[in-house]
Amino acid sequence: MSSNKNKYYITTPIYYVNDRPHIGHAYTTLVADVLARYYSLKLGEDKVFFLTGTDEHGDKVARSAKEAGLEPQAFTDQIAELYKQAWQNLNINYNYFIRTTDQDHVGAVQKIFNELKEAKTPKGNPAIYQADYQGLYCTGCEKFMTDKDLVDGKCPDHNREPEELSEKNWFFRLSDYTQILEEKIIKDEILILPEGRKNETLGLIKQGVSDFSISRESVKWGVEIPFDRSQKSYVWVDALSNYITAIGYPDDQVKFKAWWPADLHLMAQDILKFHAFYWPALLMALDLPLPKTEFIHGFFTIDGRKMSKTVGNVIKPDDLVKKYGADGTRYLLLSQFSFGFESDIKVELFDERYNSDLANGLGNLASRTANLIEKNDLPVKVELMEEKVENSLIENYNFNEALKEIREMMTEADQLIDQTKPWELVKSDIEQATKVLTEVAGRIVRLALRLRPFMPQTAGQLIDQFTAGKIVKGESLFPRIN
Ligand code: MSP
């Protein structure tokens, strides 16, 4: 299968429905949206496929449903809806929202299991086999733990003891893929970014990679293994498969081949291992090409602390949208720190930056410019020329730098107004005032063109406002917050 360079298939992790959408999920999804919008402008809308969704099976979800007094399906229906709503409020323009309880997905996962059953590893062994499993399982992580993963006998992420499990499971022979995986990662056949994460992955491979169980006997809420009805799919096999089932695997080969391999899987470091080992090895067993790039961004903390229900510092994207609007929230989340690194969100900076960069910055520039044009009835005309869309900062995942560049364009336009004082010029030299404000309006349009992937609504409004036959002030884009 040759890979089609002229398309862009981007995915986010599919989020667990035991949690409600918070700004951690929002951040990854927002970045995916910016990239998808950017490549839509660059390559054409029909050349981009942006996938997100929800991960709905497994014990963790079944338990949350029980706590909520609901059947798992009814529970997941509710939470999946919350994710869709949150993404709509943030103006996330995905092409498809997959739910792992979708019947199409479930059927496809079963076919994948059948294929795995027939598959051979590079060493000629059956890719999957049955064995007894005894071990410790953390339901919070949905993964088996060894003693070295524990701190004081407890899972450090969930602060509780894992459960003893003893059952017959199907295993995937990951150990047979170690060498090939290592080679492919070294050669950037799967490009793991940033560089540090690639080294971390190679380090983990060096420590040794063991086979992993791909089925569970005790789990009831999951995809039934077609050749062993006593077993359900391990949630991670079910979940990772979404990246191919969502684009038609295995039944719709035309659609599938049009999009696969993924150009980019986005995620944070918590799920690196699943994407850097398990997923490529499963794909090799299915004889499919590997994803081109995986970008692993950092986890952020809130005011120095891990975001958690217990600490009570969970920030919901909907609350930010209510206060700052969709574009305001998009700007604040993307401009605070370098994508890819662990960072800390300072909540008090949100108001400050909203006021300085958006209300007093961009909003004020647009309104003072339009106001001067309207009040003095100046014949300012800006032709909408398609600017070069290419933006290497975006292509290199340097989102806050890309926003900084736009802020600089804004500051320069502002300075031009301050220096030329068009409010005085109109009294003495209308022609010159028109010339200056035409230049400023042109700059606003160019800046808005750059801004489209980040703040689509604002950008669209600015472009319409300043390329209109008659430029009028209109409503304030970003009302000040006191
Ligand atoms: N269901 C699995 C993923 C399966 S993908 C085939 C899962 N779900 S999750 O709901 O826990 O989402 C984890 C992802 O959410 C992270 O990889 C990251 O993209 C995002 N984030 C969650 N909390 C975050 C932060 N505090 N900071 C940054 N991103 C965060 O794992």
What's the short story on this structure?
Keywords: Aminoacyl-tRNA synthetase, ATP-binding, Ligase, Nucleotide-binding, Protein biosynthesis. By secondary structure, this protein is of the alpha/beta class.
Largest sheet: 7 strands, parallel
Task: Give me the Rg, rounded.
Answer: 26 Å
Bound molecules: 5'-O-[(L-methionyl)-sulphamoyl]adenosine
CATH superfamily of the domain at 359-481: Isoleucyl-tRNA Synthetase, Domain 1
Number of helices: 17
CATH-assigned fold name of the domain at 359-481: Isoleucyl-tRNA Synthetase, Domain 1
- Based on Cα principal axes, name the global outline: elongated
Helix content: 40-55%
Mean of pLDDT: 94
- What is the architecture of the domain at 359-481 at the second tier of CATH? Orthogonal Bundle
The parts where pLDDT drops under 50 for at least 5 residues are none
The computed structural class is alpha/beta
Number of strands: 16
From the N-terminal CA to the C-terminal CA, the straight-line distance is 57 Å
Strand content: 15-25%
Domain Methionyl/Leucyl tRNA synthetase: 8-160, 161-369
Keywords: Aminoacyl-tRNA synthetase, ATP-binding, Ligase, Nucleotide-binding, Protein biosynthesis
InterPro entries: Anticodon_Met, Met-tRNA_synth, Met-tRNA_synth_2, Methionyl/Leucyl_tRNA_Synth, MetRS_core, Rossmann-like_a/b/a_fold, tRNAsynth_Ia_anticodon-bd
Domain Methionyl-tRNA synthetase anticodon-binding: 391-467
